[in-house]
Specification:
It contains three helices and 22 strands. By secondary structure, the chain is an alpha+beta fold. Strands 1, 16, 17, 18, 19, 20, 21 and 22 form an eight-stranded mixed sheet that branches.
């Protein structure tokens, strides 16, 4: 018995469905959603660059006081932190020896002056006699020579007395300006040598300055008179404008050059010795190599660093970089990067090369 036409039609339809199901490719998995990332736009590194360094506040006018003479300290009552006034006696040496020397020199001067007066009178008398031909020219010349010798002896005695009085005066150490004592280095009764430091003092008259050091690569990017900023952590991170006053010409160590900034309108609670954070604005002529990137953009693997660049199709590319310098929140790197390209600014360790991303928007921070 042959199958009915209806059964044949149903069988043919089922076979067709089976063939379609068996021959069709597997359904593609849903595409991966792009990961939202914060990006940073690379910009040229030859513009004005902010370099952050550490420094220390110090008084603009300061001095180390010492005696020019050796002796025993008999008077020293000021302590570190004490206020001082210009001309105020700060320390004294035992002066008895120097007083005796001064008295001796005064006696020698009186003796020399008496002898000089005697020789002057002798010369005037011989000169009058010579006019009447009562004495010879040789006798007059001999008297004139004796007078010259007496004059020289009197001048020597006067100079010796001046030196003795000077030494006596130098047994007292006076404040050269109004200010305060920053350090006391000897104690009363102590014997000191000539030029041995006794006191270190600072002045309020010239304000404060900040000293720091810069590497040789930054020397050409700074100029005396340029404006910068100084932040004082001890004063609530207060930021003050500063002017570059001095840039050293000789390195101190490891090719670091001293740099001094004058603080403008320092607050009354500022103290010498406080730490400072210096933000130096380097000029367009700095020509530092590499490109500035956020520190958070760097990913380290086996002592090598890389960043993730975002290509034109919003996919990530791994780019190896060499870190040239590190600052406060930024790094200057060299690699296969160019201004105008975008990289992942932060969270690069949570995404991978080849992954599609979407941009959160312009990075809110600028690193140069």
């Amino acid at each position: 018995m042959s199958p009915s036409p209806h059964r044949l039609a149903v069988t043919a339809a089922l076979a067709l469905l089976w063939l379609l199901a068996g021959c069709s490719p597997e359904a593609a998995p849903p595409s991966e959603s792009p990961r939202v990332v914060d990006s940073h736009l690379l910009e040229p590194g030859n513009g004005a660059t902010i370099s952050h360094l550490s420094g220390r506040v110090r008084a603009a006018e300061r001095s180390t006081l010492s005696f020019e003479l050796p002796g025993r300290v008999s008077f020293l009552r000021v302590e570190a932190g004490d206020r001082i006034r210009a001309g105020e006696p700060l320390a004294r040496l035992e002066a008895e020896r120097y007083q005796l020397v001064a008295e001796q020199r005064r006696a020698e001067l009186r003796e020399a002056e008496a002898l000089l007066e005697e020789k002057r009178q002798d010369y005037r008398r011989h000169a009058q006699l010579a006019e009447r031909d009562y004495v010879s020219a040789n006798q007059l010349e001999s008297v004139r020579a004796a007078l010259a010798s007496a004059e020289s002896r009197q001048a020597t005695a006067a100079a010796a007395l001046a030196l003795a009085e000077r030494d006596l005066a130098l047994t007292t150490l006076e404040a050269p300006f109004d200010g305060s004592v920053s350090q006391r280095q000897v104690e009363p009764g102590e014997r000191v040598a000539a030029n041995q430091p006794i006191l270190e003092i600072i002045s309020d008259r010239e304000g404060f300055e900040v000293e720091t050091r810069i590497p040789e690569t930054m020397v050409g990017a700074l100029a005396v008179g340029s404006r910068h900023e100084v932040t004082l952590p001890a004063l609530g991170n207060r930021t003050l404008p500063a002017t570059l006053r001095h840039l050293g010409t000789q390195p101190r160590s490891s090719n670091d050059y001293p740099l001094i900034l004058s603080l403008e309108s320092p607050p009354p609670d500022l103290r010498s010795g406080m730490t400072a954070r210096v933000a130096l604005t380097l000029g367009p002529g700095s020509e530092e190599p590499g490109l500035p990137v956020p520190l958070t953009a760097l990913v380290y693997t086996d002592a090598t660093a890389h960043v993730l660049r975002i290509d034109g199709e919003a996919r990530l590319e791994r780019v190896a970089v060499e870190v040239l310098a590190i600052g406060d929140g930024w790094a200057r790197v060299r690699g296969d990067l160019a201004p105008g390209q975008r990289i992942v600014a932060r969270g690069a360790e949570f995404v991978r090369a080849g992954q599609r991303v979407s941009l959160l928007g312009e990075s809110p921070e600028r690193y140069h």
